[in-house]
Amino acid sequence: MNLVLKAAKWSERKEAVTELTKLASTILIAPGDFSKVCLTLKKGLKSAGNFQGHTAYDSYAENPNQFHKLLEDAEKPLFPGCTKFTKLSALVKLYNLKAKYSWSDKSFTDLLSLFGEMLPDDNELPSSLYDAKKSLCALGMNYVKIHACSNDCILYRKEYEGFSNCPICRMSRFQRLFQNKEICKELTWHADKIIRDKHLRHLADAPASKVVDHKWPDFAAEPRNLRLSLSADGINPHRLMSSAYSCWPVVMITYNLPPWLCMKRKFMMLTLLISGPKQQGNDIDVYLAPLIDDLKKLWDIGVEAYDACRKEIFSLRAILLWTINDFPAYGNLPGCVVKGYHACPVCGEETCSTRLKHSRKMSYTGHRIFLPPSHPYRRQKKAFNGNQELNPAPKPLTGHEILDRVERINYRPGKYWKHLHVRHVLDVIHIEKNVCESLVGTLLDIPGKSKDGVAARLDLVEMNLRTDLAPKMGDKRTFLPAACYTLSKAEKRKLCNSLSETKVPTGYSSNVKNLVSMKDMKLVGLKSHDYHTLMQQLLPVAIHGVLPKHVRDAITRFCGFFNVLCNKVIDVSELDALQREIVTVLCLPEKYFPPSFFDIMIHLTIHLVREVKLCGPVWYRQMYPFERFMKTLKDYVRNRNRPEGSIAECYIAEEAVEFCSDYMSNVHTIGIPSRHRQIQLTKPLSGSVLHSTCHDELNQAHRYVLENDVDVDPYIE
What is the rounded CA–CA span in Å between residue 1 and residue 125? Predict the structure, then answer.
């Protein structure tokens, strides 16, 4: 077996080899364990006409012979005399391993062929992946390919379905969630088991969810109705930096589930896959039309679903609360302006912006406008732009006001939900990444990332600010006077050395040492999560001895803001103080850093506390889970000539396996990590060394745990 695995060039992961060896020796489950899924499917045949959507019941209505064949396979022994497994159960478990460890189609076909030779001659195991797919196709897990106009004008569907030329340019998975008793119970967690106090732990605690309960009480009366969120982002499936290919998965999640489930891979639904190679831009609404039609149906009419927990049929409805995207996609999806003088989607036309003549970019300063009227910073002139700030803070536009403005222009309205507080959320991880990148790039003077330079200093001269920093032009070179944030070569080396010697636990972040280039004195190859840990934990320590106190305090307070903002449990009473803190923190860098430092990402931090107040904790609305899911989608690509086809085929196969896994024993679902088993260690693990701690170290560790435990906070207070 090991020789075959090596010859097929499969994954060398020990888990895959271990599970495959167990499968070959014990081979799956007893046929009686699979009777649950057969019973459930047979019960569904009686009321097949009452169900809608792409489920197993539709397959029965379309092709009953094929569906009966699936039921026969569920009870048919794999070979005569076999009592441990059936044809369908063996196939499902093999497919489960294929999806779990990302085996290629060719290797899976070779495995089926090898098992067929090992088993008796009259076995029922399919001999190829193609035959295996035919056995599972009766579950109804399919997808629809819709052609689009090459100029992104229309989709060839509905009234355009039979067209050969574009008339403009002349060129439910939700029902299946309720069929599992355990998952069905969790889908009402937001109404039955949530803790009601003054803290924000879940979306159900936030005003954005409560406005739904208040505005549509008939929808809120049924706790099984789904509250959804949608995320769309472009990915390069070829994994080549030189490739400009961009396809767009559209993923949806359900907020009914408890916090430990709702952001997991199992409950992320790939609803659309917009084909590349080019980005759709503002025409993405054309491709979202099929999904919008389904969402309208779920909101206006609903679909009938079977509740396996209560054993009843009910009308299932759903509401889309908001979309989650990075900032460029924020501009494409809702059609907002994200560049220029009115780049802030919250401030709108009242965005404080200035065009920098020499840097040739926009600067978004003037955050004193958000301070209280009596704050002393409002009356200071020299430290800021030379003028006092007496204007009031801009008020965010409501959904009604946005809809009124959209209806006045010659465009199809309907992209905004006027009753909701927030319709498109700001992605915190990309804002945090850009803020940290600007700080580190400016401090270390990294080419291409530093916000300081000759053009930035000339802009200061143009604005008559901090004239002592004006560049001194020489015959051969231009000299820039040192600013309060300028680091010498020795200080840069000290900062980089501090980061390179940092050791973090496994899985906490990337190996920090590999991200620091001591030769060039800069950071390279950082991912979004690396910037997250750098901003919140590492940077305040690294700059401690290399910057003046006033600059160091401003940066440290900026880092502390993101640390508090990203907590999983938010104390509502502290949010007003946090908002005042970020306004002050944004005013402090205006005293020290050049105007070119203040891009739109720096400005957007002023609105993050507002969204926490309205929408709940940040980690329900950030792109981290979706980026991990998109990495999984990239792993599906086997044929680089047809990447979207590879993704669709693998995702549908995984959905079919997940459906059967809910009814089988000894089969763990793919999308939810299995819980850690309790192992009694009698000796150290491989490569480890026993270390005895003294009494003082144990007390110190115990005190650290207590001081960082949320449950202990009330007692400390």
Answer: 18
> Cα–Cα distances in Å, from 644 out to 132, 240, 407, 523, 640?
21, 16, 36, 34, 9
Please give the distance of CA 621 from its chain centroid, rounded to a whole number: 8
CA–CA distance, 347 with 507 (Å, rounded to integer): 38
Residues whose CB is less than 8 angstroms from the CB of residue 503 and which lie 6 or more positions away in sequence, other chains included: 512
- Our CA angle for 610, 527, 565, nearest 5°, is 20
Q: Do β-strands 424-426 and 318-325 pair in parallel, antiparallel, or remain unpaired?
A: parallel
As a whole number of Å, the end-to-end CA separation of the chain is: 61
Three-state DSSP class for residue 601: helix
Q: What is the mean pLDDT of the chain?
A: 80
Q: pLDDT tens digit string along 606-639?
A: 999 999 999 999 989 989 889 889 888 888 888 8
Alpha carbons 255 and 267: distance in angstroms, whole number: 10
Evaluate whether 219 touches 225 at the Cβ level (below 8 Å): yes
Torsion of CA 628, 631, 636, 639, to 10 degrees: 160
The backbone torsions φ and ψ at residue 22, rounded to the nearest 5 degrees and listed phi first, read -60, -40
Given a cut of 90, whether residue 503 has pLDDT beyond it is: no
In this structure, are residues 601 and 393 in contact, taking their beta carbons and an 8 Å threshold?
A: no
pLDDT of residue 682: 55
Alpha-carbon distance values, 40 to 32, 62, 73, 158, 661 (Å)? 14, 19, 15, 34, 13
In the block, tokens 């929808």 appear at: 219
User: What is the distance between the alpha carbons of residues 621 and 249, in angstroms, rounded to a whole number?
Assistant: 17
Residue 324, H or E segment: strand 318-325
Interior angle at CA 383, CA 378 and CA 387, nearest 5? 50
Dist. CA 356–CA 338, nearest whole Å: 17
Q: Is residue 89 within 8 Å of 34, Cβ to Cβ?
A: yes
From the list 407, 358, 362, the residue with the least C-alpha distance to 600 is 362
* Look-up of token digits 């092709």: 63
pLDDT tens digit sequence for 445-483: 998 899 998 999 999 998 888 888 888 887 778 888 999
560: Cβ contacts below 8 Å, ≥ 6 apart: 540
H helices of 52-192, in order, are 56-62, 64-75, 87-100, 105-118, 129-136, 173-177, 181-186, 189-192
Q: 0.90 cut: is pTM over it?
A: no
State the average pLDDT over residues 506-530. 88
